Amino acid sequence: MKKSILLTAVVLGLAGCSHMGTGGMSATPSMANSAPVYIVFFHYDSTVLTTAAREIIDAAAKSALATNPRKIEVAGYTEANAPPPTRKFAEPRFKAVEAALVADGVDRALLSRAPLPDQEAALPSTADRRVEIRLIDRRQ
To answer: Cys staple from 100: which of 57, 90, 119, 126, with CB 3.0 to 4.6 Å?
Structure first.
């Protein structure tokens, strides 16, 4: 029970963080030499966007529309590098995030996919149930 409560607290805490730079999590979008990263988490065995996930995608889309990035990377595990339990969810999770961004007015032509590195699959289970949205600035 304690483990479940702790895991829930960690997931909710992480889901609220909308920007992450190379030095860790930050609440400010202005980071030197680092594109803002919006992290969308999914429930175990699910491809459904939660309310919190939808809010993070909305914030990413709003930022993209305001800053006109060169491209928007949607990064997640692919079927080839995802841990076995999450392989079948990799593609639908990519599609869910991409569709939500487009529905929010983001030009589909700006979207590109990037796989998360294999070594990250060894992280705790919430890490393998995420998709990252990276706004790649024109200056990079």
So the answer is: 57
